[in-house]
Amino acid sequence: MTRVPVFRANGPLPGEVHVTAMGAETGAPPVIFVHGSTSWGDDPKCGFAAQAPLAARFRLLLVDRRGYGGSPDAGERFAGDYLADADDIGELLGEGAHLVGHSYGAVGVMIAAARRPEAVRSLTLIEPGCYQAAADHPAVAAALAANRAAYANLPELTPEQWLRAAADSAGMPPLEASERRLRAAATVLRERVCWEAGMPLPALRAAGFPKLVVSGAWESGPEPYRERGGVPLVACARVTAERIGGRHISVPGTGHYPHVEAPERLNEILAAFWDEAAAV
Question: What is the pLDDT of residues 167-217, one digit of tens each?
């Protein structure tokens, strides 16, 4: 495992994004993973550390989004932002790569894929936070209304308070308050919300690369977590898959983190999907 700083020579954002690279160079297209909020690329709690076994067959590039992990902040204009993510992902695509995005990270991945479809070998969205892609679904519309009301009345919070409040709302224990986690929480408090992002659905539907949307089955967990998070997220995943011309898979026994909660099954799904994409 190596950490690779990816320099933006001509891009609109300053500095480098940090990437954890796993697997040998094989000449096959690499796989770019983009994490969600309060996380980073190889974070074992919420990121893609559990996908390391896939490096036996594939070249994995685990991105730290700006404001997270080993990457710098994005400056005054962007603290952490799906548009900045899309710029970075677009450069990382190079001559071609598979894309995987989770939650907030899936939004930047979708935008980047629509901008550079010729460089995308496949697109996988895990529990995507792209609510605008399915805003006309009743469950998603209700979640959007609830989110807007909550943010309109959001008090000033420290990163520690945000971690605690997020855990309380899900009925779960808070994540550890490490320095890296607190920095991630501080970025969450500044970044543009992903559920208001306009989604390039026609461009994605028209693109010829294979598309897969993965959601948790949400059979367990605290009821408020399932009702407020699971119901709209599963609806969003299903509608998004239909509207971009992709396939939807639900992973039993998981909620918002199938790649962490059932890594062996998720890794099987990913490997099979990439093999199918290579055969097309």
Answer: 888 888 899 999 999 999 999 999 999 999 999 999 999 999 999 999 999
Contacts of 150 (CB under 8 A, 6+ apart): none
CB 164 within 8 A of CB 54: no
Q: Which domains are assigned to the chain?
A: 2-279 (3.40.50.1820)
pTM score = 0.93
**Which residues on neighbouring strands pair with residue 101, listed in sequence order?**
34, 125
Q: Rounded to an integer, what is the distance from CA 98 to the centroid of its chain?
A: 14
- Cα–Cα distance measured from residue 65 to residue 71, given in angstroms and rounded to the nearest whole number: 6
Classify burial at 81, counting beta carbons within 10 Å of its beta carbon; exposed 0-12, middle 13-18, buried 19 or more.
buried
Provide the sign of the torsion angle of the four alpha carbons 224, 46, 257, 204, taken in this order: positive
